Amino acid sequence: MMYKTLNNGVEMPMLGYGVYQTPPEDTERCVTEALQLGYRLIDTAQAYGNEEGVGAAVAKSGIPRDEVFITSKVWVSNMCCERAKASLDETLRALGTDYVDLMLLHQMMGDYTGAWRALEEAYRAGKVRAIGVSNCYPERLVDLCCLAEVPPAVNQVETHPFRPQRKAHDVMVDLGVAHEAWAPFAEGARGIFQNSVLAAVGEKYGKTPAQVVLRSLLQRDVIVIPKSAHRDRMEQNLDVFDFELTDEDMAQVAGLEDPSFPRIFDHFDVATVKWLLGDLVHQQQLGGAPLY
Ligand SMILES: NC(=O)c1ccc[n+]([C@@H]2O[C@H](COP(=O)([O-])OP(=O)(O)OC[C@H]3O[C@@H](n4cnc5c(N)ncnc54)[C@H](OP(=O)(O)O)[C@@H]3O)[C@@H](O)[C@H]2O)c1
Predict the structure, then answer these.
(1) What number of other Cβ atoms are within 10 A of residue 40's Cβ?
(2) Catalytic residue numbers?
(3) 156 lines ligand 1 (CB under 6 A)
(4) From the CB of 71, is ligand 1 less than 6 Å away?
(5) At 222, is the secondary structure helix, strand, or coil?
(6) Ligand 1 in reach of 190 Cβ (< 6 A)
């Protein structure tokens, strides 16, 4: 395993297991298998509805809690100080743990600076070991880093061979924020698992296109959290530490970048933003705590 030392000194595994779109009833089984195979970073979120399955698998695994790194994320409907605080307590309850290793703001929407204050408070109280953001574009990241008392340790953004996020990566490096890739396989788009360039690079090492993708991201100092419901693929995705891509291989993978690749969640599209904000608006209509 490779580890990333975050800007507060916390060590984070650089390859983990994501559970987005893993049905709640299948999550305990999937995470149990992932832990058995050696994964020690699990990425969940309030919005995935499967924090309880993650917590149950970790608790039953027999692996000491401090050897598993758990990430969760505050959803848009909780994006203000008071709601974020309450939602973090609910996350801890669902996970059955008294701390989360990394808590992220899932989307930079609503009163995310208020929610950030809640994460800072939780960090100081020892409820979270590190705090960070997701889907945070360079200009907002700079803004948050300037405002924050505790700077974000991680930024989790869509990153894969078709959208490698090179400029955003440089900003993150400059700000001391670790880059974490979501959808490292672009969720399987464009036949990535049969891609001829990736296959040719992998053939030299007896590795699959999926393994070449993960290895290339790790060599760019990007943390990866591939998802698979299948044990053989989970195993394959973890088996990337016994080979190294050359500069030439890395250039081949870099050549797959395509600015026309559609964003999986387009945060620059008004309809998508409205849709993501739907939960927050709904909470407002219910007359809950003020959101600003
Ligand atoms: N912060 C955010 O906004 C955000 C957004 C999306 C995702 N995420 C996080 O990032 C994680 C990963 O992203 P993702 O789940 O969207 O997509 P992904 O990891 O890019 O792709 C998952 C897909 O690839 C397939 N797959 C996995 N390994 C494979 C292999 N070795 N060979 C062939 N197929 C393989 C899986 O199928 P099977 O399951 O059938 O094997 C699944 O359909 C998520 O689980 C979540 O934790 C975060």
Answers:
(1) 18
(2) 48
(3) yes
(4) no
(5) strand
(6) no
C-alpha 287 to ligand 1 mean position (Å): 36
- Quick: pLDDT tens for 215-267: 999 999 999 999 999 999 999 999 999 999 999 999 999 999 999 999 998 88
CA of 187 to the centre of ligand 1 (A): 5
Is the CA virtual torsion 233, 238, 239, 245 positive or negative? positive
Pairing of strands 100-105, 69-74: parallel
pLDDT in tens, 79-107: 999 999 999 999 999 999 999 999 999 99
**Separation of 121 CA from ligand 1 center, angstroms?**
32
- pTM higher than the cut 0.90: yes
Mutational test site, ligand 1, from 21, 42, 74, 227, max ligand atoms within 8 Å of CB: 227
Domains of the chain with CATH codes: 3-191+221-230+250-285 (3.20.20.100)
Q: Contact, 18 vs 69, CB < 8 A?
A: no
| Closest to 214 measured CA to CA, from 190, 229, 235 | 235
CA 52 to chain centre: 18
Query: CB of 70 within 8 A of CB of 101?
Result: yes
